[in-house]
Design a protein that fits this description.
The chain contains eleven helices and 18 strands. By secondary structure, the protein is of the alpha/beta class. It has an eight-stranded parallel sheet. A six-stranded antiparallel sheet has the order 11-12-13-18-15-16, with helices on one face. Strand 12 and strand 13 form a beta hairpin. Helix 5 crosses helix 6 and helix 9 runs parallel beside helix 11. The longest helix has 18 residues. The relative contact order is 0.13. The protein binds alpha-D-galactopyranose (GLA). Alpha-D-galactopyranose binds next to loops.
Length: 448
């Protein structure tokens, strides 16, 4: 939840008012079974064998979320075709809960906004061929501020979630206090509690890496969680103009890419870097006043008329680069009001296939200039996904070669442009004119 706080930072004017997304870091993770960090299980038994795909309520509904919103999101995933394209999890973020636990200390759903309860909602979501995710926090408070964190209730809460039929837990460390050892202990406790339930529950943690000075991004959480946040909350903008430092209150798309790229080696089947949710089709929060004035109003206006949205090019870039990074694809837009150009991005099956490639090798930047970057991601079967990323505002020609992106010598290569669908052949040279803040995303393979 967005909270106005006074914070003193050596990097900012003392006492400056900072906008901070309240709530702990959130990440969408797979929890609990032999999967997290384990390479010993057969791929088919690994929970989150590929990056989780789904939808989360936060970026559109924030703390106003209702069970009706969740049901409608599930329905829209089905009717839009996104479920069949791979989106599986319907995740309720913060604020689903009552402000107090019940007499037995059990978490309970907010009676006004979730009158039917979570078990009934899980049944509904399951009946649509989807899975349900929920949100909790390892400390005393949820990120929204109520004293319903799971500290001391780990086993009880895991059992409750399993009994309700929950399939995914986002476990959000809502504090910049504590040591790395504290975080490891508390995240491990819930991992073990989830495992003990016997229900496969994807375990998504947020150690608050973007704002926690001690943990930073230094720790590889792959032995504990199925996914872990590598960023501050990503806002629907390109660049926060503050970089990826721990005192940047929000990240833009490019900041999340910069923070996650160096961590590529941590990603693999069952354990993924979570660069935060997609902002495709969501509205930016450029000023706190806008946030408090209204939350991401539903609209069917063409995106080009909405100055507060990122451009379509920037949305395509986020979707492309999250797929290059093997980051979870968790949409956050209002699925019931989805303009066709947004659906075309979220539903691009060629790009999704890169994201979901079974090898699970995250791509890296093999050239990372201040304006132009060239990324490569090895895919199953000897193909390579390539992204030519233009960080600047102006169109730019970006080039690479088959050899540079790691393909073996061959007389010719097949090239598929994953956004236009166009198929071409090259003897090795690749060039594209890429719009400002845009990406050309290609799949290359030696011609058989
Ligand atoms: C943090 C997380 C967000 C969201 C909010 C909820 O800010 O990073 O993704 O879950 O908490 O309060």
């Amino acid at each position: 939840m967005l909270k106005l706080v006074l914070q003193r930072s050596p990097h900012l004017l003392a006492g400056a008012v900072l906008l901070v997304l309240a709530g702990c870091g959130g990440s969408e993770t797979d929890s609990g079974t032999a999967s997290a960090g384990g390479n010993n299980a057969a791929a088919s038994q690994v929970l989150a064998a590929t990056p989780p795909m789904g939808w989360n309520s936060w970026n559109t509904f924030f703390c106003k979320v209702t069970e009706q919103d969740i049901r409608q999101a599930a329905d829209a995933l089905v009717s839009s075709g996104l479920r069949d394209a791979g989106y599986q999890y319907v995740n309720i973020d913060d604020c689903w809960h009552a402000p107090e636990r019940d007499a037995e200390g059990k978490l309970q759903a907010n009676a006004e906004r979730f009158p039917s309860g979570i078990a009934a909602l899980a049944d509904y979501v399951h009946s649509r061929g989807l899975k349900l995710g929920i949100y909790a926090s390892p400390l005393e408070k949820m990120c929204s501020g109520t004293s319903t964190g799971s500290l001391g209730h780990e086993v009880q809460d895991a059992d409750t979630f399993a009994a309700w039929g929950v399939d995914y837990l986002k476990y959000d460390y809502c504090s910049t206090e504590g040591t790395l050892a504290d975080q490891i202990a508390t995240f491990t406790k819930m991992r073990d509690a989830l495992r003990s339930t016997g229900r496969p529950i994807v375990y998504s943690i947020n150690s608050n890496s973007g704002s926690h000075e001690i943990t930073g991004q230094a720790y590889d959480w792959g032995t504990i969680a199925n996914l872990w946040r590598t960023t501050q909350d990503v806002n629907a903008t390109w660049d926060n103009d503050l970089g990826t430092g721990i005192h940047s209150p929000f990240f833009g798309i490019i900041n999340a890419i910069d923070a996650t790229e160096p961590l590529a080696a941590q990603a693999g089947p069952g354990h993924w870097n979570d660069a935060d949710m997609l902002v495709v089709g969501t509205q930016a929060i450029p000023a706190i006043a806008t946030f408090f004035g209204g939350l991401s109003p539903a609209t069917t206006q063409p995106l080009s008329q909405l100055a507060l949205y990122p451009t379509l090019e920037e949305m395509r870039s986020q979707f492309s680069m999250w797929s290059m990074m093997a980051a979870p694809l968790i949409a956050g837009n209002d699925l019931t009001q989805m303009p066709p150009d947004v659906l075309a991005i979220l539903g691009n099956r060629d790009v999704i296939a890169v994201n979901q490639d079974p090898l699970g090798i995250a791509g890296t930047a093999i050239v990372n200039g201040s304006d132009a970057a060239v990324w490569a991601r090895p895919l199953r079967g000897g193909a390579v996904a390539v992204a030519l990323l233009n960080r600047s505002k102006l169109p730019m020609a970006i080039s690479t070669t088959a050899g540079e992106v790691g393909l073996p010598a061959a007389p010719t290569y097949q090239v598929k442009d994953l956004w236009s669908g166009q198929l071409t052949t090259t003897t090795g040279a690749i060039t594209a004119t890429v719009p400002g803040h845009g990406v050309a995303m290609l799949r290359l393979m030696a011609t058989p």
